[in-house]
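User: For my dataset I need records formatted as: sequence, then structure tokens, nothing else. Please produce one.
Assistant:
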Amino acid sequence: TTFKGQLTRIVGSKCVEMIEVGPAHTGGDAIVHAPDDRTVFTGDILFINGHPIVWAGPIGNWISACDMIMTLDAENIVPGHGPATDKRGVARVRDYLVYIRDEARKRHDAGMGALEAARSIALDDFEGWGDAERIAVNVATLYREFGDASAPSDAGVLFGWMAQLWKDRK
């Protein structure tokens, strides 16, 4: 079964709500809410203790998805990446997304190129999270969102950028 928007099913005796929240990480992002169990399965909307990677965007959809998860009556949140969390984990991912959006916008508006911008964004508040080099993809996606047609979308180029940043940070 495919769906758009929201789809509710009864599985056994449990109500299960499937909610479309993308595109964000990819074009087909959805979460699953089991209200009776106060549990949300977020798929790739949440990366806990790791830098998320924005392949599709727009990033505003991802921020909105985090906001929506925060409104659900859920105490158990199962991310697509990393350990189970609570709403504090959702808030940290949201904080990261807002931060990189705002920092990338400043650099874009100042005329800085996407790779240079990715290199210059401090990630101190997210130290200890894995895969910091993903900032390269995130900034390129944001630059395209800001209207910069020169920011690459080719996965091969973006993986090359991530490799450069990984080497730079070691």
